[in-house]
Amino acid sequence: MAINLQKGQKIEIGLSKLTIGLGWDPNEGTGYDFDLDASAFLLNANRKLSLESHFIFYNNLCGLGHNENNPCEKNGCTTGEFGVRHTGDDPDGNSSDGDDDEAITVDLNLLPDDINEILFVVTIEDFIVRKQNFGQVRNSYIRIVDDVTNEVVAKYELDEDFSIETAVEFGRLYKRNNQWKFEASGIGYKEDLGFFVNRHFTGEVIK
User: For residues 38 and 168, what is the distance between their CA atoms, to the nearest angstrom?
Assistant: First the structure.
């Protein structure tokens, strides 16, 4: 039976191969599609990206710079360069059909040794022009699926009203004493994806 997590709750994972599924339902009638983007930041002990390619998102699905699923599959990137692979962008919020909108697979055994945390965030693309925020998004969640049994291990439904926020930290995997744990975060920001890149990357950001 899956554990229903509350904001701030932490659990031990006890898995090595898992899928982080993220879902949402944008309100209809706002005049524009909702392009919500899930991203993963592979962070070291200083909560920084050691490499630019440790930022997994729609333009770097597997750590090798692939921006479409098909090139990843052609190149055998089933688990990604670092054991992490984004399964693809959902550009209009309509591709889930009740399932996860976007997902990120993780094999903890393949992570570089210096990775202490994987941070999962969801941001709204082009929110200024489209005048969108998370107050117009319903049924947001993050869940952990055991890739061996396909069973949902834990789920966190974000029931907070993010009325003005345009980016939300859904959750994070983190390592303590060589044990991986998960924290249901639910922290909102009135920012874009660049905010998280600037926070966790010390190199030059090419825009």
Answer: 10
Alpha helices, DSSP H, located in 24-156: 69-74, 127-130
Structure token pair of residue 86? 């984004």
Interval 58-101: pLDDT, tens? 999 999 999 988 888 888 888 999 999 999 887 776 666 668 99
> Is the entire prediction scored with pTM above 0.90?
yes
Cross-strand partners of 17: 107
Between the alpha carbon of residue 175 and those of residues 85, 96, 130, 182, the distances in Å are: 19, 30, 38, 9
189 neighbors 163 (Cβ within 8 angstroms) = no
Average confidence (pLDDT) per 10 residues, the chain, 207 residues: 92 96 86 90 96 95 90 88 91 70 96 97 93 92 96 93 92 95 96 94 67
Strands 117-124 and 10-12: unpaired
Whole-number Å distance between alpha carbons of 64 and 72: 9
Q: What does the alpha-carbon distance between residue 109 and residue 83 come to, in Å, rounded to a whole number?
A: 7
